[in-house]
Amino acid sequence: MTTAASASAVSPSTSVRVPVWAWALLAFAVFALYVVSQENGALLSASAAQMLHELTHDARHALGVPCH
Amino acid sequence: MTRVTLSASPATEVGLSFGSVLRRGVLAGVSAGLAAAVVIWFVVEPVIRRALAIEDVRSMHGGQSAPAGLPAHGGDEPLVSRAVQVVGGAVTAVLVGVAVGVIFAVVFARMRERLPGRGDFGRSMVLATIGFAAVSLLPALKIPSNPPAVGNPETVGQRTMLYAVVLLLGVVVALLVPVLDQRLAARGTVPSTRWAVDVVATVVLVVLVLVLVPGSPDAVPPDVPAGLIWDFRLASLAQLATMWLTLGLVFGLLLERVAAPQRALTSVSA
């Protein structure tokens, strides 16, 4: 009883339990943002990176990330 | 009677699982990406077409009018046609929306009890505003967006680095100011004073970032009109603002909808 009461006092109903995998998911989302907005050959082969650059070109400009 | 008064408290005081927050983040991210794609289509693309016309003039003159190192955008056979590039841009905007939506959901879940704002809708709008200011507006002020026909390919690495640094510093400011606010609260400072100190601290930190971080090394080529640059930067900010605004609105509305039935249930059971 005491533990239940103290637990509810520590975590108010507005807090959300964030599982550990959520941080891996966040890291993956940041990585996806990098690939879509910045990848220019650091990970992919030159031709694949150039293809990706051309496909994402307009959005990269619109997002304001340095493009070329 | 007690139950009824409890259920009259804001809809936000409802426990949420992380999964339900994440699902709404993805949905809101898709909506934000689609809204951004619409703005790109109708607002950004017309400006890009004006910039590409300048590149075309450069390559027609055999690259003579284009100073060395300026983008003339690859010769006769483009790797990808303009039509595919426009569609690719829209798809990219949606992918970016989903990724930002996922990050938004994780940060929101972690920060929910600490975010100011009325209910989950208010909290969502506050987080979206902070997100726009810290990772979109601040980098755009220091390393402003440029249309095609501007930007020296040789300095793209340096500009990307500066852009990333400003973005990270924006996140640092967004994390530091709440810490300062909590310190002040712990010392018993009255809310109005706390607000004033928070605002001044934010302004000082942002000015420091803008002054201390070096700007873009590029000069705008003489054949690109200033009006075109201005229109493009406004269009780019419109796209980013639309993305964050849609994300905050949809995410907040979806969370309020989760809370509403549970509230109704509580009043019935009472």
Low-confidence stretches of chain B: 1-12, 64-70
Residues in β-strands, percent of chain B: under 5%
- For the terminal residues of chain B, how far apart are their CA atoms? 7 Å
Query: The biggest beta sheet of chain B, please?
Result: none
Q: Specify the overall morphology of chain B.
A: flat
Largest interface: A-B, 37 and 61 residues
- How many strand segments of chain A? 0
Name the average pLDDT of chain A. Answer: 82
* Regions with little confidence, pLDDT below 50 for 5+ residues of chain A: 1-11
The domain count of chain B comes to: 2
Label the structural class of chain B.
mainly alpha
- DSSP strand count of chain B: 0
Identify the overall geometry of chain A. Answer: elongated
Structural class of chain A: mainly alpha
What is the chain-wise order of helices and strands of chain B?
Answer: HHHHHHH
Number of helices of chain A: 3
Tally of DSSP helical segments of chain B: 7
Q: Radius of gyration of chain A in whole Å, from Cα?
A: 21 Å
Distance between the termini of chain A: 63 Å
Structure, described:
The complex is a heterodimer of chains A (68) and B (270). Chain A has a domain at 17-63. Chain A is elongated, with a radius of gyration of 21 Å. Chain A starts with a helix and ends in a 5-residue tail after the last helix. Chain A is 66% helix and 0% strand. Chain A is mainly α and 68 residues long. Chain B has 270 residues and is mostly helical. Chain B has 2 domains: 16-152 and 221-262, no CATH class; 155-217. Helix content of chain B is 74%, strand content 0%. Chain B is built from 7 helices and no strands. In chain B, α2 packs antiparallel against α7 and α5 runs antiparallel to α6.
